[in-house]
Amino acid sequence: MNSFQMFIPTNVHFGEGKLEELPDHVKSFQAERVLLVTDSGLMTTGLIDSIEQLLRNAGVEVEVYADVEPDPSVETVHKVAERFSDMRGDLLLAVGGGSSMDTAKGARIVALQGGHIRDYSGLQAKPIRPNRNIPLIVLPTTAGTGSEVTFFGVFSDWENKVKVTVTSPFLAPNIAIVDPALTRTVPSHITASTGIDVLAHAVETYVSRAANPFSEKLAESAVALVGEHLRTAVFYGENRLARYSMAQASLLAGVAFNHSFLGLTHAIAAAVSGYAHVPHGVAIGLLLPAVMDYNLRANRTKFRVVSRILSGDSAATEQDAPVLVRQLAMDIGIPQHLRDVGVTEDMLDGIAKDSMQSVQLRFNPRPATALDVRALLDGLY
């Protein structure tokens, strides 16, 4: 019976062919110089070249920063901010997955307000002002993070083995152009890891202590879409309906967790990635069934709903939920053991300890201690 507020600051344009509208959106901000933020992998597909040409044909000057890495570092955020300032840019355009979108979000803060991106994270975080002077447009090419609409940016501080999470409604992009056609060539392993992340967003939001009727309905819809379409998207990537549905699921889950936040899966995954450089979606897919099993007793009713949505069986019980998710993860090739993704036994205590620093823990339906997390990690090792 939580009270809640609904706020969706991003203007979303969803559908196949929406990429062609990009010049009109750029011009709506009277932007003449655009910094396009992306990764080296997309540079080989021809997509970035076509976007550059689309904008140049409209009279827009474009520069490209193509060195965003997976789980982007705080250093990359500052390199993009510096590049944007040097070119006297008018608008940031992120094309890619969550890494490119988050990098552009962070760079916009640094370019506008200065300081280090770490300054805007944690309990003593500096306030973030509305970004009226630097518009941000995003074009997601994966269906996973929901970063196209979220209030969050996550960055890797490899030196300190931690994830830096920045949170503010003013972090959200001004415009998200979600064109499912851009996801049809995404490799199967990336489709799998980003897609299981969508499911985790939906499930953790659904059972969150901050859940509300608005976020619950979005989360239920996202669970249904992932359950029906993720396997097809992984194994038959050209399937238009599967890609359309997964893009929709990512969007719905992103809006949902803006309002109700996440939980223990994401808290532990951030620590796992910080210690062993495990890709975020892989860590999430490995952890999610075990965390669901841990959380079952805290909200049996909602986990029963998840079971019935995923199975289509009205007789499914709450105990079926983690089993169904584990089977989905196995089917799409997500590793099942921490040792298989580079986590060593001597890391486990540190991962358990660092998980306790996550703000997501306050929203998890069942309280957890470092000892609880260590036991969970031992079971997955």
What do these coordinates show?
Belongs to the iron-containing alcohol dehydrogenase family. The chain is an alpha/beta fold. It folds into 2 domains: 11-182, 3-Layer(aba) Sandwich (Rossmann fold), CATH 3.40.50.1970; 185-380, Dehydroquinate synthase-like - alpha domain (Dehydroquinate synthase-like, alpha domain), CATH 1.20.1090. It contains 14 helices and 8 strands. A 6-stranded parallel beta sheet has the order 1-8-5-4-2-3, with helices on both faces. β6 (152-157) and β7 form a beta hairpin. α13 crosses α14. The radius of gyration is 20 Å and the shape is globular.
Secondary structure layout plus pairing:
Elements: E1 11-14, H1 22-27, E2 33-37, H2 40-43, H3 47-57, E3 61-65, H4 74-86, E4 91-96, H5 98-113, E5 136-140, E6 152-157, E7 162-167, E8 175-178, H6 188-206, H7 213-235, H8 240-260, H9 264-276, H10 280-295, H11 300-311, H12 320-331, H13 348-355, H14 370-380
Parallel strand pairs: 1-8, 2-3, 2-4, 4-5, 5-8
Antiparallel strand pairs: 6-7
Main sheet: strand order: 1-8-5-4-2-3
Question: What average pLDDT do the residues reach?
Answer: 94
Query: What percent of residues adopt helix (DSSP H or I)?
Result: 40-55%
CA-based gyration radius: 20 Å
What is the number of strand segments?
8
**CATH level 1 name of the largest domain:** Mainly Alpha
| Overall outline | globular
CATH topology of the largest domain: Dehydroquinate synthase-like, alpha domain
Q: What count of helical segments does DSSP give?
A: 14
Tell me the span between the first and last alpha carbons.
38 Å
SSE order: EHEHHEHEHEEEEHHHHHHHHH
List the quaternary state of the chains.
single chain
Report the CATH superfamily of the largest domain.
Dehydroquinate synthase-like - alpha domain
- As for the number of domains, it is 2
Structural class: alpha/beta
Largest sheet: 6 strands, parallel
Low-confidence stretches: none
Strand content: 5-15%
Identify the CATH architecture of the largest domain: Up-down Bundle
